[in-house]
Amino acid sequence: DDLRSLRQQVNSPLVSYSYTLLLCWRGTTADLQEARRTLQPPLHSAPLIVLNCLAVADLDGVEAALKAYQQANTQTAYSPLRVMIDSIPLLLGKPELARAASRANRQRNLFFRVNEETLWHAAMDYLAGDSNEAALLKAATNHRQVSQAHFYIGLKRLSEGDRANARQEFQKTLDTSSPNTFAFDLCVILLARMERNANWPPWIAETK
Predict the structure, then answer these.
(1) CB 98 within 8 A of CB 90
(2) Where does residue 152 fall: left (phi above 0), alpha (psi -120 to 50 degrees), or beta otherwise?
(3) I need a surface site. Which of 1, 30, 82, 203 has the fewest CB within 10 A?
(4) Per-residue pLDDT of the chain (208 residues; tens, 9 = 90+)
(5) What is the dihedral of CA 64, 130, 84, 59, to 10 degrees?
(6) Rounded to two decimals, what is the model's pTM?
(7) Are 51 and 24 in contact (CB under 8 A)?
């Protein structure tokens, strides 16, 4: 209630983010409807775009969520955010779309911080299907990067219907990260939703 009141008084991405995280974590129909009302496009924050697509998928189905993803503003100079946005198809059970987006990103002259370039190149190669988990983890040189690697491995496994191993990777993300990244926050939501409902997300068939 306090966050809802603050959101009504202060229209800022930070307040919207905190409020929407809570709504998506709870995950009732009413909460998700409120999240969708809060996340009215155009959205210029990558985490808000991801959360919006997740809420739309729950409420209106994958095709509506894909449309929201395709319409999102993905122009950002800080390219890890671009990688994050283009991993949305993994949450929607469409790994082939994530592969195509990652291959396209790999061919662009994207900007990365010097100390992160190796990791993000490895992440794009992995998400494009041109590399493996071992190569991605090898490219991670600190706890934060290891956490990011496990996050993307978890998303890919979830998209393929491997819920059990996806949960393990999401837990590793939490174990190797501090609670100040979107990967951490999203994994809290995903693990909570999957714990409460073994068949969630219902649009991804369990295959393993």
Answers:
(1) yes
(2) alpha
(3) 1
(4) 554 554 555 566 677 888 899 999 999 999 999 999 888 877 778 899 999 999 999 999 999 999 999 988 666 657 888 899 999 999 999 999 999 999 999 888 788 999 999 999 999 999 999 999 999 999 999 999 999 999 999 999 999 999 999 999 999 999 998 788 999 999 999 999 999 999 999 999 998 7
(5) 20
(6) 0.91
(7) yes
